[in-house]
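Narrative summary of target 7.
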Amino acid sequence: MEVDGKATRLALFNLSTPNMRAFHMAWIAFFLCFFAWFGVAPLMAVVRGELQLTKEQVGWCIIGSVAATVFARLLAGWMCDRIGPRLTYTGLLLLGSIPVMAIGLADDFKTFLLFRVMIGAIGASFVITQYHTSRMFAANCVGTANATAAGWGNLGGGVTQLAMPLLFATLVGWGLTEAVSWRVAMIVVGVLCALTGVAYYFCTQDTPEGNFRELRAAGKMPRVQATKGAFGEAARDRRVWALFLIYGACFGMELTIDNIAVLYFIDYFDYFKTLEQAEALRTAGMIAAMFGGMNLFARAVGGLIADRCGNRWGLDGRVKWLFIALFGEGIGLMLFSQATTLSLAIPLMITFAMFVKMSNGATYAVVPFINRRALGAVSGIVGAGGNLGAVAFGFLLKVEGLDWHSALFIAGIAVTCISFASFAITFREGAEARPSLDLPAVEPVPA
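Modeled conformation, tokenized:
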């Protein structure tokens, strides 16, 4: 069944419709982008030793990996509104693959940091993924579609924690040095990103009816000039900034854990001090992969519950579920931060991860209903909030004299407080009555 060409359900095994082709290509592309974005993170113990990085320099690498994404996500949302998600994603994958491969040329801290910052731009893939699925699915299931596509894409952050140490160990086993092995591993990932960019161009279209260029030429879609001012409308809406803060607290924390998980376990748990470096990397990577692995279903669960709450209680039901999920994340993070044994840290990390992913899914189950005309702008601003949150957490982690146990506990307090920002998200009565997300109507900013 379709509403204005939009799918009203996720038919996962049906590739005959443009809706489902876009869905599958979007999450696959995001998966590879996320994999490339954090591909070097589980190998930082090796990189740190080879380049002789200090704690402060490692901190700057963590911050640099997410800083550029703030601006890239704003640009991606703007581009989606103008040229469509198909061309935007293709360009991002092809251009983003260059620094992913080029980081293998780094031979000191400055060049490594430069390429780490440039790789961060590939994180803008999230905005395009959410934009494309929002265009393809009707209001009754758009939260589920957005959360599932993003969750399966975010899974790349978990898989890379496991796969990159294994690829590194394999290359070392083939006779390559450790210095060469991590570099070759990144080249492999970069090539995969470039190939996916080509596939995205040929396998998808912007909307169920066709591409932006053809639809505008046929008069079936407003021309680019008609979208001017949309970014300003989104930026003046307090609800957008509330979601900006909320996404910084949930996705920002996910990015932070993806960046530090392996180092955190190796440096703060005595068990790893008894292992060889390669074995410590593999073991810590397997544990860290559990955090990202929750994206297999937890983010989708967050979106699904939001859709169920929305179908029963309206948009207010979606917002109340968002508060519950984010509040649970804050409490879970504080508990996880105080664990000092693996037997306690692992189950607490998994519980905390469940709430992180559900909060992510719940956030983007609300985003499509904020401003339909400025969907790309809203998605971009909120998505940028996730990275700005990661930047803030990164500065916290690099404070001298503050161990990461204490830093994460402080972060947990911040997340818990930010969860109350969800009460600033209100809607006009009947705002969800219109099922199509393509309508040009703009919800007024609540007073």
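Confidence is low (pLDDT under 50) at residues 432-447.
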